[in-house]
Amino acid sequence: MGAEQVRSDTLQSLERGLAVLQVFSRDNPRLTLSDVARLAGVTRATARRILLTLQHLGYVRAEGRQFSLTPRVLSLGFGYLSSLNLWEIAQPYMEELVARTHESCSAATLDLPDIVYVARVPTRRIMAISLGIGSRLPAHCTSMGRVLLADLPPAELDAYLVTGPFAALTERTVTDPGRLRAIIGQVREQGWSMVDQELETGLRSVSAPIRGTDGRTVAALNLAAAAPRVTLEELRTQFLPPLLHTAEQVSLAFTRSGKR
User: Fold this and answer.
1) Beta-carbon neighbour count of residue 99 at 10 Å?
2) Which domain holds residue 36?
3) How far is CA 90 from CA 24, 108, 119, in A?
4) pLDDT tens digits, 194-240
5) Rounded distance between C-alpha atoms, residue 161 and residue 153, angstroms
6) Secretion signal: which residues (predicted)?
7) For residue range 185-196, what is the model confidence (pLDDT) as tens digits?
8) Same domain, 47 and 118
9) How many CB atoms lie within 10 A of CB 80?
């Protein structure tokens, strides 16, 4: 099926409705009708119809001139998490890894251009960013993102890389698509990724893949540590081995559960 046929079979009203839902964020928790229209790229009349529909369905509430999401939108995300079942499977292994390393452990899946957190066992707070299930971070500068990018089919990886250069979140962030491609290739060969202060100054992380029954990467697992406290060598020699072991355990448990 060609791209034109796929496009003709889509529901434009559904596309616009989902676009409206996605304009709400931590930075924009409450928006006016004009704000929604501008951010979603639709007319005021269209934004009004969509917001009224979402309000009728219980996904949006109106307070004066402003609109905000309701907790019902969580059902959309938790439907995915329930079908994946990763949190239930991975939690005991992640908790054991955190108890052993005393560092935070997270799992994420890929939703380009971001990764999305689907499980997390925190320890001490080491990031300026507050993370939880559903949080999104750029794939290009995160160790989990690079593990997930390394398993993309070549055409999908090419399509992603042509969207660069990428945003520099710190002075260490790799933004050049060619250099990022080389790094992803190395991650693919070695089976893990390490990132040193590319997402946030003072933060280092190492990640490994969680694989399904077909051997494809379904998620990534990481450990994150404060740079002043944990050197790169310590991250590689003391944290990577137990992380790889845990990722293997989760992968085996995941495949035994019948998930792909």
Assistant:
1) 11
2) 3-69
3) 30, 12, 8
4) 999 999 999 999 999 999 888 899 999 999 999 999 999 999 999 99
5) 12
6) none
7) 999 999 999 999
8) no
9) 12
